Amino acid sequence: MFNMMNWTMSFQLKLLLLIVLVVQYSKATRPSLFHLFGSTNEPQGDSTTWAVLVAGSNGYDNYRHQADVCHAYQILKRGGLKDENIIVFMYDDIANDPSNPRPGVIINSPNGPDVYAGVPKDYTGESVTTDNFFAVLLGNETAVQGGSGKVVASKPDDKIFVYFTDHGGPGILCMPTGPFIYANDFIKVLETKHAMGTYDEMVIYVEACESGSIFEGLLPADLNIYVTTASNANESSWGTYCPDMSPPPPPGFDTCLGDLYSISWMEDSDSEDLRHETLEEQYLKVKMRTYNNHSSEGSHVMQYGTLGISKETVSVYQGSTPGSFSAKPFQSSDSMGVVNQRDADLYSMWKRYKKLTEESQQKEELFNKIKEITAHRAHLDGSVDMIKGYLLGNELVSVRDEGSALVDDWGCLKSMVRTFEKYCGSLTQYGMKHTRTFANLCNNGVNNKAMDEATKHTCSSYKMGRWNPAIVGYSA
Ligand SMILES: *[C@@H]1O[C@H](CO)[C@@H](O)[C@H](O)[C@H]1NC(C)=O
Ligand SMILES: *[C@@H]1O[C@H](CO)[C@@H](O)[C@H](O)[C@H]1NC(C)=O
Ligand SMILES: CC(=O)N[C@H]1CO[C@H](CO)[C@@H](O)[C@@H]1O
Questions:
Q1: Rounded distance from Cα 182 to ligand 3 centre (Å)
Q2: Of 303, 319, 342, at which residue does a domain stop?
Q3: For 22-42, what is each residue's pLDDT tens digit?
Q4: Ligand 3 in contact with 302 (CB < 6 A)?
């Protein structure tokens, strides 16, 4: 009797083990089976790949972000994604800007083709907002304001690719119309999307300064979301193909054409067979190129989330057209001329200014604009320093360890930002670099009343002019 029971149990155990092994085996071999049968390795059966592409800036001096997004669209389109599944956010003020030497055309590399033709204008101008981005991701048509109304109406087996390029700061991604995207809100949206069960796996690529801070210590590893970012949590990302740098844009362009991390993944996608390259392989190549030959003018590409997804091929998220990839060599060891995201607009304005040889009203206006912007930036930097000194003195402020979130109380961070802007004027995309200081005030227990006093005191005599948040909107 005893023996019999033991035998039955061990038989059942063995059977169970066998079933587990078979299931594991079939899971593990699925990708290679696709290859065996010559399948495209695209999502199978009922699975659709969706994409959301976001350029978070506007203005000709930020040409590169919209150029990046247009280029990304062309890759996905060529890869076989359908327009009904690609949702594009771009302000759409570049192609026909009077400064554009090629009216109606946008390029993303010096010898590159037009990437503007055919790009869907889903969310343009004032409809490029944080709320619309979140509503689109969540597939909530009724929450969308303006724009085409297209949303990610994804099903449980679907894949989603999200690409964002713009300015950012610790914990923040900018948008042309405020308020900006705060990391905690973004993560909450991703958690909601996961809880809705309306996707299988998601891949997110983000180019922005301090973009690692959006996910570091914040993104859970069990949401089936794999992320790579242009930079770690505390460094700039870089614009490239800039005037008078190597390689330069064609004559006539006085603005940068692309961003280093962005053109790195896209030029890789343009030149590789994406049915065979894995996300991990793309990550490693992009990381190497964005490092920019170990120079100080480069950044550390990071990855976050469900890292196992990186074993899949790029084609699952970006599509692929068998045989149509160009064999353009991918040069990962060349160092690229780059400009810090935050200085790129002024750099471009100075180039334009120097080109205007004749004294003219246009030249004077441009000079005054540069002077105003520079003065406001100096004011922001000085005020933040002063407020920090006032509230924390010269104490060594505790900086959080690598791997932990920027701040725990995001409500505190947002109210610090609002208080600052109320008295000192809009932080602008440039001033976003100071959000770590505001976060540290919160982390050190500074309350809003103290912040209010310190800020009022510091900025009481500042004339905000065009940087009045009542006019340009608060960024929090
Ligand atoms: C969609 O958004 C609307 C308006 O913000 C909200 O009331 C509604 O609950 C949302 N629907 C879903 C399914 O989340
Ligand atoms: C990379 O950096 C090294 C050392 O600074 C330099 O000698 C080399 O020329 C650089 N390579 C390229 C391709 O710029
Ligand atoms: C707090 C933090 O993330 N520090 C990192 C800043 O970036 C450098 C690399 O550039 C890292 O070494 C630090 O750990």
A1: 21
A2: 342
A3: 444 444 334 433 333 334 445
A4: no
